[in-house]
Amino acid sequence: MLFRNLRSLSLLLFVTTVTVSTAHAGEGHGKGSKADIGQPGDPAKASRTVEVQMFDNYYEPESLSIKEGETVRFVIRNKGALVHEFNIATAEMHVAHQPEMMMMVQHGVLKGDRIDLEAAKAMQTSMGHGMHKESNSVLLEPGKSGEIVWTFPEHTDLQFACNVPGHYDAGMQGDIKLTH
Questions:
Q1: What is the CATH number of the domain that holds 63?
Q2: What is the DSSP-derived secondary structure letter of residue 74?
Q3: pLDDT tens digits along 137-173
């Protein structure tokens, strides 16, 4: 029994540390400093619109080529049967964000094919996160669409990914190649 309690305590400390570290890195949801992953863009300055479709555990397109410093408007559509996320970050930031997404499942926010907004509000009130409103990320129910306008940095290894538990590990991620 003591081993189980120590193990639970260790897991709780790990999740708390990752969550606090992610929040200090820049607001959570895989978001880091502006120099790391870019910043929200001005829609009037977007050079193009890129449509991204999310299916169950893959994206179309599978990768993106973006010019360093470019501002892009993304229109994201969830064509799958499950809730999916489109999140722009580094691979390390995606991994750091996954425990928060797991907590959203555990607190009843993510329900497979829908998002429980009342549970999200309760989680936001009690824990300080749960609403999933970040400029580098959109979380969508099946059939829904969303938009992100993003200005990309220089010389950073970025990915777009879904951090709903199990989706990233199942391959729901794509590289963002920054070009000159």
A1: 2.60.40.420
A2: E
A3: 999 999 999 999 999 999 899 999 999 999 999 999 9
Q: Which domain holds residue 81?
A: 2-179
Tell me the residue type at 45.
Answer: K
Separation between Cα atoms, residue 74 and residue 4, nearest integer Å: 45
Residue 127, both tokens: 């824990």
pLDDT tens-digit map of 14-60: 333 333 333 333 344 444 443 389 999 999 999 999 999 999 999 99
Which residues are CB-neighbours of 95 under 8 A, at least 6 positions away? 168
CA-atom Rg of the chain in angstroms: 16
pTM of the entire predicted model: 0.81
Task: For residue 137, report the phi and psi dihedrals to the nearest 5 degrees.
Answer: -150, 145
